[in-house]
Amino acid sequence: MERLPLENIVYFGDTARVPYGVKSVATIEQFTGQIVDFLLKHEVKMLIIACNTMAAVASHVVRARAEAAGHLPVLDVIEAGARAAAAVTRNNAVGVIGTPTTVNSNAYARHLHALNPGLRVYSQACPLFVPLVEEGWLDHPVTRLTAQEYLKPVLAEGVDTLVLGCTHYPLLKPLLADVAGPDVTLVDSAVTTAEQAAQRLQEMGLANPGDPANPASYRYFVTDVPLRFTTIGERFLGRSLGRVETVAW
Known about the structure:
The chain is of the alpha/beta class. The chain contains 10 helices and 9 strands. The model has no long low-confidence stretch (mean pLDDT 95).
């Protein structure tokens, strides 16, 4: 929204079936296909896989459907995060924190090694972070203790870069930066993804020139409990969401 203020955005949050990070690959692939089909009905011009778990194990499902729908561009947060981490590391030691499914997929390590075979990648699953963020415990003693335990083995490897490999984790950025210390750079793939989206839209001639009479529209679709989603969503965005629509599956 900040990087592309002229673009209309359709957001889909599968609130009835999250978290994805502890589900099987087959289940995530099935859910992913449903979501992409739904978004394509809204005539989107680009698909962004904004969930690390989905990007880790089901990006092929998104890309196949996007190709069949007319070669729609597809971006994902893992590729963006890996690029950013490879660019900022100074000692070639990169830590990755994410959900169990994302970490077990080894997707970040594969992307990072493709960019620089000399990188050493140390991954850590952090399954408790998502519920803590959703509880609003962003700077709570319990969250701090949890972060210290999770980061201990990664920091012991001497990493100078830490990839926040889940879209919930940026809300913990101040706490994680404090626990990791000043010598570790945190990488938030959201910023890189937004930059990539802007660049790709320009390259493909798909950028919206904007119309002062018709400001950009935002539609939010969820599969359950819009009230809770609104509370958490406004905490993430720092702005009002307005109307949230529920999809019954």
